[in-house]
Amino acid sequence: MKKSTSPTIQDSRFYIQLFFAALTIWIGIEFYFFVGWLESGGAVEFFPRPPGAEAFLPISSLMSLLLFFKTGVIHPVHPAGLFIFVAILSVSFVFGKSFCSWICPIGLISELIGDFGAKIQKKLFKRNLVLPKFLDYPLRSLKYLLLLFFVDAILRMSAMSLQYFLDAPYNVMSDVKMYEFFAEISQFSLIVIASLFLLSIVIRNFWCRYLCPYGALLGISSLLSFTKIKRNKETCTDCKACTIVCPSNIKVHKIETVISDECVACLQCVDSCPVPDSLELRAAIGKKKFNKKYVGLAILLIYFIILGVGVATDNWQNNISKEKYLELYPYRDSFDHLNNL
């Protein structure tokens, strides 16, 4: 049997993950200085708020998207969030749930913790631990229940209600409140995060697989993606190398086309296949092949072209004045999202 000599793309995927992780850290640093300006009451030199922080406001972004569908208006409070949200969905419609394994910083952290846990498990148990189906399936439904809760509440809102919520002080200051949640994290939150860390060592990708509503949304959209991983039954040797490396525990060696809400398009299975052209990324309909070495570039292009549209159309920076921020900041803890629904 001729071994495949094609290079893997895991190094380039890791570098792209590091790029987005570094970008997230940089946005966090910029936001730190912006909040410092707010805390001073405007006494220190003004530091602009980074629009990229809106990537952490998916609920607001989803509401902005729905408002856009209803009215054709891009809401000016968190406009960058809308374009980031659309960019993430667009990437998923082309390359499945690739956001989770190529862009998301939480996905990178989860992956590193999973790799660490796999090494420990192999030493202790000589294999990786996997939850049985009777536990795995009910737990996987949790993230869909969370998604359903948010989506159902938002879809019930009229255009006027959406406008009211997005205009409200709570939404205006939601990024600041999100920042302070982590900057002044409570003991309970630390315990929850520590628990998720330990669970992720035992069960790979625990948060992403069972609890992340964003992952649930992308999992649904990925089922409609233009590309799928396909297996050639004629040349496949059933070596199971693809299944062994799959971080989502998909039995790749048993199926012709990977159609799963858990596939994150990391392409580790494609890289692991020892037989040329037996496992490839192809068009969902037809046999057109997409060269795996261009996947990372295509993801970056789709993502940043859509963000570029937001910048070019002047829908990136919000319309909140410095004076408005200084007016609202002292009362931020009194703003309640429940009063705005």
Give the tags:
single chain; 341 residues; mainly alpha; two-stranded antiparallel sheet; 3% strand; globular
Structure in words:
The chain is mostly helical. It has one domain. The protein contains 16 helices and two strands. The protein has a two-stranded antiparallel ribbon.
Write the layout of secondary structure elements.
Elements lengths: L9 H30 L18 H14 L7 H17 L2 H5 L2 H21 L7 H23 L3 H9 L1 H4 L1 H10 L3 H16 L3 H5 L2 H10 L4 E5 L9 H5 L22 H5 L6 E5 L11 H18 L9 H7 L13
Antiparallel strand pairs: 1-2
Compact overview of the structure:
58% of the residues lie in helices and 3% in strands. With 341 residues, it is an all-alpha fold.
Q: How does the helix and strand content classify structurally?
A: mainly alpha
Give the fraction of residues assigned to helices: 55-70%
Shape: globular
What does the average pLDDT come to? 93
Order of helices and strands: HHHHHHHHHHHHEHHEHH
Low-confidence regions: 1-5
- Indicate how many domains the architecture comprises: 1
The total of helices stands at 16
Question: What oligomerization state is this entry in?
Answer: single chain
Distance between the termini: 62 Å
Could you tell me the radius of gyration in angstroms?
22 Å
* Structure summary, number of beta strands: 2
Percentage of residues in DSSP E strands: under 5%
Sheet of most strands: 2 strands, antiparallel
Strand order of the largest sheet: 1-2
